[in-house]
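Appendix B. Raw example, untouched.
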Amino acid sequence: MINNDVLRRVRYALDLNDVTMLEIFSLGDLTLTRDELLSYLKKDDQEGFVALTNQYMDDFLTGLIAYKRGKLEEKPEQDKKPAVSLTNNSILKKLRIALNFKEDDMLNTLKLADFNISKGELSAFFRQKGHKNYRECGDQIIRNFLQGVTLHYRKPVE
């Protein structure tokens, strides 16, 4: 899925304003101007659109985790994990961490978007790449998960 789409959908689902978005990026150790942010939020057919790189998307997701759950205090003897390439699986994993979702929360969120998968199918997305049950997360899963998050956080008032 295009990083810009994920960024726009997360922003809408969690009802984040420009100031909050810039704060989240800064928590991920990336400083942006408001104009740069707005260029990333444009659709690809709009004038001034700039594609969001994998590194910037990773910085945003890391910042989102820090924003929602607090900054992780690293111990001096703790080794820093090497950066992994950004995939749909890692996007889904970071969103799960940021939103503090457990397996049932993930399944219920997908059900909100009328998309049903089993626990086994879901857990396959979070396995290590070499594992025999590992499965690539497709754009459809991310799209439906973000739709479910939108419905979860922006429930219509009855």
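End of appendix B.
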